[in-house]
Amino acid sequence: MGAHEERFSLAGKVALVTDMASPLGQAIAEALVRAGAHVHGVNADHDQCVAQVNALRRWGGASGHAVDLRNGMAALRLARLLNEELPRLHLVVSTSRIAAATPAATFIPETSSETAELLGELAFVQELLEVLKAGASAEDRARVVLVGQFSEAMNRQSLERQAKESAARLASHHVELNLIDLRSPPTSAQTPSILLVVAALKGYLQGRGVSATAAR
Questions:
Q1: pTM for the whole structure
Q2: 104: Cβ–Cβ under 8 A, 6 or more apart, which residues?
Q3: 150 in Cβ contact with 161 (< 8 Å)
Q4: DSSP element (H, E) containing 25
Q5: Is residue 82 within 8 Å of residue 40, measured between CB atoms?
Q6: Where does 35-112 have alpha helices with state H?
Q7: E strand map for 116-156
Q8: Cβ atoms of 86 and 77 closer than 8 Å
Q9: Quick one: angle between helices 46-56 and 23-34, nearest 10?
Q10: pLDDT for 51-80, tens place per residue?
Q11: Half-sphere exposure of 129 (CA within 13 A, CB side)
C-alpha cells in the first residue's frame, strides 16, 4: 500500500453503493470499505448479496440489501428504510439503473433512456435527502456520485440540465452532486476503466475534483 492509499480514509463515514451486482459496483464497495466506511450495498440477487457482504466484512463494516432498484416501488421502500434505520448517510455512489416510483412525476417529452435513468437516480437521491442532510455540514458536505455513460446520451443537453438543477437543489442542503462519465461499461473487476473510476472517485472524495459531464 502506497502513501496515497494510506491517506485515503473514510473512517466513520456511511456509504451506499447501489449496484454490487456489477464489477464496477463491487470494486467501489471494496475500496470504500477498505478506506474505513461502513458500506450499504445493493444487489437484487439475495445469495450474491449475502456472499458479497460477507467478503466485504473481511476489511470492515458492510450491510446488504437484496433489492431490485429497477422496480420503482422497491427503490422507494429501500430509501424509506434507510431514512428510518440510519442516523446519517455521507456518500451515495450509484452505478445502476433506478426506476422512479412515480414515472409520471418525472416524465419529460422526448426523454431518452439515459435521461430517464438519470431521473430515476435523482428521484432516489431525493428520497434519501433527509438522511444525507443528517450526514452533511457546511464544513464536510455529503456526496452523491452518479457513474454512467452520460456522454453517449441522445439528448445530452437535457441530461446535463436535469443534473445541474438537481445539483443546485442539493447544494442548498450541503449535499454535493457529481457525475463521472463512463465511456463504456466495464466487464471485469480489473479492467483499466474500473481502476480509473475508482481512482477518480477517491480523488473526488479527497477534494481533488473529478472529471464530469455536468454538475461539478
A1: 0.86
A2: none
A3: no
A4: helix 23-34
A5: yes
A6: 46-56, 72-85
A7: 142-148
A8: no
A9: 30
A10: 999 999 999 999 999 999 999 999 999 999
A11: 12
